[in-house]
Amino acid sequence: MLGALFGDEVDETAGAYIAELVYGANDGIVTTFAVVAGVAGAALEPSIVLILGAANLFADGFSMGMSNFLSRRSELEYARGAGETPDDGGKRPGQTALATFLAFVVAGALPLVPYVLEIRPLFLSSIVATGVAFFLVGAARSLVIPRRWYLAGTEVLVVGMVAAAVAFVVGELLAGAA
């Protein structure tokens, strides 16, 4: 496992749910940070971050998981309807849904940690936690893809922080509406 993280060795069996895990984790981090950034950009009370963040984590995480379930199930049913034997890769729709949901909730909770633990300054601490979360998700990809951990981590960090910046700018632009 350490060889996979620090070298180009890839564990062929460990990546069965990589798509669900990366997709769920990235979306969880982005949407939760969007709540944090929107609230901070609009200069609302920090307690609002926890309320909206928790609601987002579980409602959006559930929605993502169920959407994954329905899309995977539809894909398999389409193949059966076309007279094909669907290749489910050993992944049932319920399993992919659960992987997506768990990745969303676990990774998506990280931008909220500074608000829960009251690590000040709250928003700056959340930005750092968000960046670390993106980097860790990316670096973890190197366990199942042939890419160095720091390159995989940097790729997700850059893409994720651009999305996070968009969320903050929208919050700033709409601050007067609150």
Automatic annotation (TrEMBL):
Protein's membrane topology: Multi-pass membrane protein
Keyword field contains Ribosomal protein: no
Keyword Plastid in record: no
InterPro entries with a match to the protein in the record: Ccc1_fam (IPR008217)
Any one Pfam family match given in the protein's UniProt record, by short name: VIT1
Keywords: Membrane, Transmembrane, Transmembrane helix
Transmembrane segments: 33-59, 97-117, 123-144, 156-177
Subcellular location: Endomembrane system
MF-aspect GO terms: manganese ion transmembrane transporter activity
Gene Ontology cellular-component annotations: endomembrane system
Biological process terms in GO annotation: intracellular manganese ion homeostasis
Primary localization: membrane
Domain of life of the native organism: Archaea
Listed name of the protein: VIT1/CCC1 transporter family protein
